[in-house]
């Protein structure tokens, strides 16, 4: 099977088709940085969102990015993994003009009013106002390269094409060059992800691109004034130990911008809601447990602070919990008494599985080897208790503790249906207030009510008001403390 071909937008029919028509329409040539500056200012004045989809950076990172764009600076985003650096870089493309004119067939996306190569200049001089004009969509003006140790100067900048030499062209002829990714993104935005991983001798090749705006290939210089915004991302050098950004290259970036993880719980939750692809309903209190869990892992002294805990950790946790809920719904047969199949609604108990499935996303301190799951399980319990206190503190929950008086017990677990759990608890005083505090509405489904009940039971256990035991079959049994 072949990969699907990306759909290339079709230019509107009313765009000028020749250089003469382009001039008559009043089009003015602008560099990429002028274009970004003008469009950013236009969005600021209109109040239109400038970086849609970027969460948690409104008062910190985004103002610095805007200042860099307005100043016309190339920039490097520095931060731990999973802080949205690549997402932010890719969002810059939306600030470009939707359509920009190009000379058809130009590898360098040359502007008809500003040709670069000798061949294009000759073409413009010969055709004059009759020169055909093509149109390039902004989605095609973004280039990206993940820096890997095997990246070569030829990949980024270009190399001599031996076939063109064999055809009789001389080495001094620009037509002998096969241009790399950077020149091919001329008049656009080019991003280098994980820049320190690029070998230092390869980083040197970017020096002229950033300062002199020309390129050198195989010992001779091409005076091609490249027009692009160069953006790089990097993890802190003291963590990666795989390489560094060489000092002359750091000096050529106009702005170094430090990114960060969400600064508060609400932003963490907003990020999970936006990014997680949930295959089942995950109530807000369960999402909050996972958000608090991610933040607790990030702050734990047992976790290497230099590595960071990616925002993908909390997102993957939410998706895993949703998957557990869907698995339960798929395995449980329709309950004849409720007359319908189990709906997929996550419960707090479904979060237990994330401690084993996501431990590979966390780098622990060297002295914690063998205790990874134990540490994560403790932090998950802490996050659950904090969420319980945040939502249900002050409520009279004696109706739930009374359920296990006289040695009675309540069984729940991964494969216990909502109907079975609710039959065990019956009519519980205080349940309506619990549902209201958890924003589950006046008429929750049985599955939502079961999720609330399980959350209360787990919270009462974590606050030492109920006992808990896990059976060999995987069921969780809540009972009295005695």
TrEMBL record:
<dbReference type="Pfam" id="PF00158">
    <property type="entry name" value="Sigma54_activat"/>
</dbReference>
<feature type="domain" description="Sigma-54 factor interaction">
    <location>
        <begin position="178"/>
        <end position="236"/>
    </location>
</feature>
<dbReference type="InterPro" id="IPR002078">
    <property type="entry name" value="Sigma_54_int"/>
</dbReference>
<dbReference type="InterPro" id="IPR027417">
    <property type="entry name" value="P-loop_NTPase"/>
</dbReference>
<dbReference type="GO" id="GO:0004672">
    <property type="term" value="F:protein kinase activity"/>
</dbReference>
<protein>
    <submittedName>
        <fullName>Magnesium chelatase</fullName>
    </submittedName>
</protein>
